[in-house]
Every structure is written in structure tokens, then in C-alpha cells.
Write a structure and sequence with these properties.
Blueprint: E1 2-6, H1 13-21, E2 30-32, H2 35-43, H3 53-70, E3 75-77, H4 81-93, H5 99-112, E4 118-122, H6 138-154, E5 160-162, H7 166-178
Parallel strand pairs: 1-3, 1-4, 2-3, 4-5
């Protein structure tokens, strides 16, 4: 089973992933932390609103590698190819990347999105926190949230919306995972 979190920055994805890692009922799962920060450190990439074509290429390909690495395994991903599409859409709208990069990302998105069994969309109902790495720009976050909503509707993506406290979000996750396939 492939479970992925998705959503704008500072909406609780990493917090929930960490909570799942310590939960006995998810012990059979592999956990993949948020990739962008690791790529930023490893390759000295600019991310979020400062990203560019190379950032998007490396990030989107990392989603492809996650798919290949965890195909037919139980995994929980901090982000998925939907995130790659959203941030590529943002960069394209800002004229920071060429149309070819957008088309490549959309192609991968269409190929990979169906491999995710459960997509957990973290609603932006928690405050934006500046952790020194993710963007604390509210205007950027609002644009990203809007792009998520547009893509979810346009591509008719089935997402489970997580909102409220961490405990409320975890209750929803338990319910969805426990009843998956029933």
C-alpha cells in the first residue's frame, strides 16, 4: 500500500508522518521523509518560490525514484508527484521554467498518480511557521493552496482531507487505512 501526504508547506505533513512512524499499527511501512529539504542540502538547490528549472527537474525525478524504489511495498511518503506538479505549475506561471519542464512534470504526474493508494491532503488550517527552511511567505503559500485546489478538481484526484488538530487528523488516517479496500 502506498500512502502519501500532499499539501502546501507548513500544513502538518511531516508532523503526521513522524507520528505514524512511532505508531505500532504502521510498523510494516517504510517511511520517506520530505525530499525537497534533503535535495536543497545535498545539491544546494533553491526551493519554494526561489526554485528554478533544475530544482524542479531534480525534485520531480525524485518522485519517480520513490515510485521505483517502493513499488509493491508498503510506504508512507511525506510528499508525492502531485506536489511536484503544483510547484512546477507555480514556477511555470512565474515564467521561471520552460513549457517543456511543465509538460514533463505533467506526464510523470499522469503516469505516477494512480500508483498512490491513499492521498492525504493536509488542509492549511494551521498557522504558517518559519522553520528557517520552508517558505514563510503567506502570499506564496496562498498561491500554492489555490494551485492544489485547482489541480485536485481539474484532474479529479481523490484525496482525503485532513483538518483540525493532530489527533483529529490521526483519527481520520486510522479510519481510512483500517477501512481501505473494504
Amino acid at each position: 500500500m502506498v500512502i502519501s501526504f500532499t499539501g502546501a508547506q507548513s500544513t502538518g505533513k511531516s508532523t503526521l508522518l513522524t507520528k505514524m512512524q512511532t505508531d505500532e499499527r504502521f510498523r510494516k511501512f517504510n517511511f520517506v521523509p520530505e525530499i525537497t529539504r534533503g535535495l536543497k542540502k545535498k545539491y544546494k538547490l533553491d526551493i519554494n518560490e526561489d526554485g528554478d528549472e533544475f530544482t524542479q527537474l531534480v525534485t520531480v525525478n525524485s518522485h519517480l525514484y520513490n515510485y521505483l524504489d517502493f513499488k509493491d511495498k508498503d510506504v508512507v511518503l511525506d510528499r508525492c508527484i502531485l506536489d511536484g506538479l503544483i510547484y512546477t505549475m507555480y514556477q511555470y506561471q512565474k515564467k521561471k521554467i520552460p513549457i517543456e519542464m511543465y509538460h514533463y512534470t505533467e506526464y510523470l504526474f499522469k503516469k505516477l498518480i494512480g500508483s498512490i493508494d491513499i492521498i492525504l491532503y493536509t488542509e492549511p488550517d494551521i498557522p504558517l511557521v518559519d522553520d528557517g527552511e520552508r517558505s514563510a511567505n503567506k502570499e506564496f503559500r496562498d498561491i500554492i493552496i489555490s494551485l492544489f485546489e485547482e489541480a485536485i478538481n481539474h484532474f479529479d484526484i481523490k484525496v482525503i482531507r485532513l483538518n483540525g488538530s493532530v489527533d483529529n487528523r490521526m483519527k481520520t488516517i486510522y479510519n481510512i487505512v483500517d477501512n481501505y479496500g473494504k
